[in-house]
Amino acid sequence: MTVAESSEASQSDAEAKARGPVRRAPPSRLSAPPARKPVVPFLLGAALGALVGALPFILRPKQESSLSAELGARCERGDRVACRQLGMAHQVGFDGPPDPKKAAELLERACNGGEALACLRLADLFEGGKTGKVDAPRTTALYERACDGGERDGCASAGLRFEKGAGVAKDAAKAATLYQRGCDLGGARACGALGMAKFVGMGTEQNVELAVSLFQKACDAGDAEGCHGYGRMLLGGRGVPQDEAKATQLFDRACEGGSVMGCRALGLLYVDGKAGLSADAARAKTYFERACALGDAVSCERVERANARPREP
Fold this sequence. Notes:
single chain, mainly alpha, Serine Threonine Protein Phosphatase 5, Tetratricopeptide repeat, 3 domains
């Protein structure tokens, strides 16, 4: 201990003696620590306060978004692009529940102003019956207008309606012409449909080799039916060297993409155990069920037969 520390210690002892002994209160007289406030009621109160503060915002009627309001104003000023965009917003429910009737009104205004995409979307609404009425001739005409405006999917849809005679008299030649226009615009669906037309000679000169090329082009661009068509060509070696393994891969790709025929084709191959596949009734049934779910009556019958067949003991 240093001299300074010794001096301070002596001074402290002297002050303690001057004060006398320290008297301590008995334990019973010690003051209790302050009670803690309950945490749960406090949190509930805070939450209730926040809810009450938010009520004016929760109960306030939903306001139209600034984007929709701007598009509406521009549409009223004659901007057909804004009318089309706002119509598509109502079609998908951008600001609330979808409103097909309001969408149709706006899309028709844009279509009449020369917006080809608006004609296409309006035709889709009519074809699906989402406006409350089905107008087959008008739907076909709208798809044609969309095609004339450069919408490749409009060409494919219009071609299909002329091929099937939906709202118009059947016209295979016109269907093939529309498919050709859509394919030239880069439409995968149109190229696939044109491939089938070329394969069977529907409305156009038959050309199997060109059909193969069109199916492959459509498949590479993501068209499921194009993949099925290309697989058929490879499976049978039509216009191209036979390749069963690749054919089954293409059928599977087609089925995954929603092609009824792709799913059915795989089901049949598993039933018969062909194209390098082992016979497998369970897998065949799975593919038939997928095709049935897509609306294929033939596959539905296959599923019913499989379900009715008694199981082996």
